[in-house]
Structure formats: structure tokens, C-alpha cells
Amino acid sequence: MELQLDFSLHLATHLCPSYNTVVTLLTQTVKEWPRGSAMLTQAGRGVFNIKVWDKARGEKLLGQKVEFYYEGDKSRNKVNVKIEEKPQKLRYTNPKYVTLVGMDRFPANQMTNEQLDNILGKFGDIIIPTQDVYAEIFLTGKKKVRIDLNKEQHIPRDLFLQFTTDEGKKYEATVRNYYKDQPWTCRTCKVKHVGDCPEWLKENAEKESAKKIKEDNIKTAFIGDSNNRCINESGVMASVTAITGAKIGHVANQIAFENLEKIENVVISAGQNCINDIDSITKEAWQARTMAEIAQLESAASSLMAKGKNVYLVSVPPTPCTQIEDSSKEARRFINTRLNVLTEKLGNKWKSKGNNVVRFLEENEGNYNSTTDFKDDKHLSQLAVERRLSLIDEILPKGKKIRNPSLSARSTCAPYRGCYGAYPVGCDFCTRMKHSEADCPKKNLTTSASQIRKNVSSSDTSPEKKKSKE
Question: How many CA atoms does the CB half-sphere of 173 hold within 13 Å?
Fold first, then answer.
């Protein structure tokens, strides 16, 4: 039989008796104390558990009081603490703290916490109802709940929600949730498992191994658009930054934020995303904007060379999106030509000032196979990236190659799994910093000019105009 003596209900913590004091109180003041057949343990400051193996003796102890005189005047500073049966704590089968994310998105944000409890109740008993998660005074868009998964089924990682609002509107949503030892279908290894993915653990081990090998030995940095996304830093002696959707100006902006103190060779690839809107603005406006971005790149590259670094500019590859229309083909040729001119200009500028190298790496279009070298209409496949890495490795000086037999990982991997993925820094239209696309003065001027040209073109083909010409 388990009993309890709780002084913390009557006294402040610092006034509660010690273990030895309680032993004295029990043996000297409690009648019929079962000597040798009871155990006394301290559960907390002021809380003592009594375990009696003889139930009959234990029942005799129930309700008896222990007088305890604490410091000060004994006539007043006294408490009577009753021996009571120890409260039985609830025992759960499989209690879990569950975190749900994405609850700030529509239509999941229309759901009440009570409705969520009703759905989660299908998986087990709710211990602590659903609550919003705060960061200080701000809502985070997450919710938390404690549930006993005692119905022999786990909550799916992607939980489907179907509910009706107070106004009678029916909604469906899928939100992601997490809890310890939750089985889930891994996107990496395509297997359902609990805990960390074995492939992920392997990659982490390779990263740690590569980090030790590459420490203070990295001399090359790749900075460019998303065609860098399949390069695996754990498999090459280089750091890699892939900026999704980046134009030439965005890559030039990013260079200023990179740590290139120990880097000797900077490989820059950009230009493909400049072609995205070639048909939405006038040719003159597009060329002017692109040349402005190339001027940004020239400034960034010149700054690198001033610090004694070598610069390699990689040409825009013939991805399907650059081969759709004659305008996109011409735009690609325009960019590659101007990048080549830029390298010649930088080479002449720094030729007499040092041993810096600046080169334009133009890949042979005949080496590209449309069935194997493109992941989609905008991105190179791992095979094409491997070939590009080999091209760069060939021109790098001896002792500073990016291929290294000490690195066990492959030099390419799934998109963004092995490199630093970034977003464009600067305006999405003109790439200049400190304003957004909505406030871009160049876009507003370009849009106005394009609209005027469109209106003039439309008026030239009107029936009235044709008649006057006749």
C-alpha cells in the first residue's frame, strides 16, 4: 500500500522538514508504526512517500496526523500533516507531444482548435487540448497538442483535415505534423521509417568527413544561378552557392555577401534567367537592362581581381527554354557574346597589374544531348553538370583542382541537397538593391514605353489607317 506525507501543502519549501526529521517524527509520534515493514522515500522537497507491504497496517496509518514544529515560537509555528493515500498518477499507453505546422494557411486557418481535437481524437485520447504556439507575443502559425496514441494507429505525417465552419462552409486541407518516433515515408530513400533517414545520416557523415579534408584547403567557389544546384560540396574541393531564379545582376549582388577571403578561383555562371521576359518588353529595353547587369558583374569581378583572385565566367547553356523562339536564341547569343567581351576587357585591364586569370568558358553546344543533359526546360541534369565540372577542373592550376580522390561523395547529387541554396538579392526586374519590383522605376518606364509602342502598332494596322494610306 502506498501512502504520502505532504508538508508542501502547509509550508513554504524552505520550512519543510528534512528526511531525517521526518524519520524521527514518524517513529516517535505515530502509533503502531510498522517497523521494518515500510519504506520511506523523498519525492520532492516536503513530499515523502511511504510504502507499506502489510495492507492492514497501512490502513491503520491512514488519517493519522504528524505534528511538526518549525522554527520560532513552538506554540504558534506548528502544522498537523495527515498521512494520506498516495495519489495515483494517470498512466498513458503512448503519450506524444504533437506539433502541427501550416495552420496559418487558408483554409486550415479557418479551423478551430476544438475541431482539430475532434479529428485527432480518432488516433487517441487528448491529454492537453490543441493550443496556439507563440513566439513571445506573436503567433507562429503552429499548433501543439498532447495526445495518448492508444488506438494502435499513428497520425499520418501529412494529415488530411475536413471540417465545416460555423457559417456552414465546408473546407479540406492537408497539414504537416511531427512527433517523436512518428513513422513517415522518406522522400530521399522512398522507404517508410522512424527517425532519421539512413541516407541522410550517410550524407551528413560524408559532409563531416569532407569538411575536415577541405578545411583551409578550399581555393574555389562556385556562385551562380540554379544550374549550380546539383553540385555536391561534399564531392568537390569548392564551396557552392546556387541562387534560384537569379539574373546576372543578382549573382553580382550575391558576391558581396560571400566569404571569399581564402578563395583564389571564383566560378560565376549567370544569364539564363535574363531571357525569361525577352518577349514581354522591347528588344532595346531588354538589351539596355542586360547591359546594366553586365556592368554590375564587371564591377564585382574587377573587385575580386583587385584582391588577387581568378575569375571564370561560364556561358549560358543551350537549355530548352533558350531554344524555343528565335528571340530567346538571339538573347542567349547576345549574353554569351557580351560576357566574352567582358572577360577580354577585364583581362586587358589587369594584364599589367598582376598574374590574375580571367576566362570565359564557352561550352561546345554539340556536346549537349537533349535526352540526357536536361532535367527540365531550365535546368541541367547531373550528367551535364558533371561534364561542366570536368571542363572547369581541366583549366584550374595543378594543386587547386576541384576533383579530389580523398572525397568519398559524388560530385553531383539531387537538387540543392549538397549546396547552399539562396534567393535573389535585389529587385526581380532590374536586380538593383533597396527597392522591390513593384517600386522599380526602370520597370515602370519600360512598361510605359512598351505600352506606347503597342498602341502605336495597333493604330498603324487599323482600317482607318490602311484606308488613308491607300
Answer: 22
Domain, as residue range, for 147:
95-185
Apex CA 262: angle with CA 258 and CA 267, to 5°?
A: 60
Sheet harboring 95-101: ordered strands across? 125-135, 138-148, 95-101, 170-178, 158-164
CA gap 300, 255 in Å, rounded: 7
125: domain CATH number is 3.30.70
313 within 8 A of 360, measured Cβ to Cβ: yes
Q: For 352-364, what is each residue's pLDDT tens digit?
A: 777 789 999 998 8
Do 274 and 229 contact (CB within 8 A), yes or no? no
| Residues 226 and 173 occupy one common structural domain | no
Q: For the whole prediction, is pTM greater than 0.90?
A: no
> pLDDT tens for residues 310-323?
999 999 999 999 99
pLDDT value at position 234?
93
Residue ranges in 30-149 assigned as alpha helix (H): 55-61, 113-120
| Residues 394, 284 within the same domain | yes
Nearest Cα to Cα of residue 411 among 390, 380, 397? 390
Q: How many other CB atoms sit within 10 Å of the CB of residue 72?
A: 10
- Give the per-residue pLDDT at 366: 83
* Percent of the chain residues past pLDDT 70, beyond the cut: 93
pLDDT score of 423: 96
Task: Confirm if 393 and 219 have CB atoms less than 8 A apart.
Answer: no
| Strand-strand pairing, 47-52 and 95-101 | unpaired
Instruction: Tell me: do 293 and 392 sit in the same domain.
Output: yes
**Structure confidence at residue 89 (pLDDT):** 72
Which residues of the chain, if any, have pLDDT below 70? 72-76, 90, 447-470
Domain count, the chain: 4
C-alpha cell at 339: 560576357
Residue with cell 523523498: 42
Do 234 and 113 share a structural domain? no
Q: What percent of the chain has pLDDT over 90?
A: 62
- Report DSSP state, residue 397: P
Cell of 418: 549538397
How far apart, in whole angstroms, are the C-alpha atoms of residue 342 and residue 358? 9
Per DSSP, what are the bridge partners of residue 126?
A: 147
pLDDT (0 to 100) of residue 413: 93
Residue 132 CB neighbour total at 10 angstroms:
13
